[in-house]
Amino acid sequence: MKNIHTPLIFDSSDGQELRINTISTYLKKKFGGKIVKLSLDGGFTCPNRDGSKGTGGCLFCSASGSGDTASGSGDITSDLNSQIKLLSDKWPQAKYIAYFQSHTNTYAPVEELKSKFYAALKHPDVVGIAIATRPDCLSDGIIDLLSEINRKTFMWVELGLQTIHEITAEKMNLCYTIKDYDDAVDRLISGNIRTVTHLIMGLPGETESMMLDSVKHICSKKIFGIKLHMLNLVKGSQMEILYPDYVSFENIDDYIDLIISALELIPPDITLHRISGDAPRSTLISPSWSYRKRTVLNKIHKTLKQRNTWQGKNSHITP
């Protein structure tokens, strides 16, 4: 493949000349209108919380399993309805994707998973489902269930990789390896299941080169999407105890420099589901500026234009 020599504009419908392939743009084109994710807490836990692999969870994870804004009353239909009610004034014509976000959403018996996933899909305003999980919690039976759902509706599965580096994974108490990820993503993709990979930038001990190596590795797979954000030190996490003074990025500009380098490596056909973090201000410890999500995003877009660069510029893959 050859380098791309002219800027890629993925969406200019609102005058922004968007230089990244956002999931919002992808969904708008696919469904012909606004699609909103509704975050759900399905009542699951994780194997490194319940003692089967470890305790305490990943060091950076909040008490809610990094689903601080997810609804989890135990009644999925009710949770969906309550969120839709809150959003209906802003987006009266929107349709929705049910997003099982908190903890590990394939860590339960297949029949329980099936019941909860299909309960969400029965809602008349839900047009698809997104399921966040760990790469070591995908048995053959669960893959079969996901394949069945994938044949019936729009779906993606999110794998929380965070880093390809074993020393970091051990330090962060992930309790899974890059081999687990490679196996999981290969099995999902072979089943034509859209796969999104989550990386955290700024984990303790990682250099810029290490972080970009993680980006390169996941881009070598035929994944559907990527989620990137800075490490947020939050209250209630193990990191608050073990790394109380840790700051992943001292300022916005350092983070933006790294993210743009990452974006340039990401092939243009991969959708971007997140390029910043948004921990609630009430629980955020550091970086102190990261709660300003809109400011961070606006500055990323502005800097891409100033530098005349774009997603995929250095990926050597044409769209």
Could you give a short description of this structure?
With 319 residues, this protein is α/β, with parallel strands linked by helices. It has helices at 23-31, 76-87, 110-121, 140-152, 166-171, 178-190, 208-219, 238-242, 252-265, 293-306; strands at 35-40, 95-100, 126-133, 154-162, 194-201, 225-230, 233-234, 271-274, 284-286. Helix 7 packs parallel to helix 9 (252-265) and helix 9 packs across helix 10.
Describe what this molecule looks like in 3D.
The chain has about 325 residues and is α/β, with parallel strands linked by helices. It has one domain: TIM Barrel (Alpha-Beta Barrel), CATH 3.20.20.70. A 7-stranded parallel beta sheet has the order 1-2-3-4-5-6-8, sandwiched between helices. The longest helix is centred in the last third of the chain and has 14 residues. The model has no long low-confidence stretch (mean pLDDT about 90). Pfam families: Radical_SAM (PF04055), Radical_SAM_C (PF16199). Keywords: 4Fe-4S, Iron, Iron-sulfur, Metal-binding, S-adenosyl-L-methionine. InterPro entries: ELP3, Elp3/MiaA/NifB-like_rSAM, Radical_SAM_C, rSAM, rSAM_horseshoe, rSAM_sf, YhcC-like. One of its GO terms (molecular function) is metal ion binding.
Percent in strands:
15-25%
Helix and strand element order: HEHEHEHEHHEHEEHHEEH
Derived from helix and strand composition plus strand pairing, the structural class reads alpha/beta
Largest β sheet strand count, sense and barrel closure: 7 strands, parallel
How much helical structure, as a percent, in the residues? 25-40%
Count of helical stretches = 10
Shape, principal axes of CA atoms: globular
The name of the CATH superfamily reads Aldolase class I
Protein name: TIGR01212 family radical SAM protein
Pfam families: Radical_SAM, Radical_SAM_C
Organism: Lentihominibacter hominis
Keywords: 4Fe-4S, Iron, Iron-sulfur, Metal-binding, S-adenosyl-L-methionine
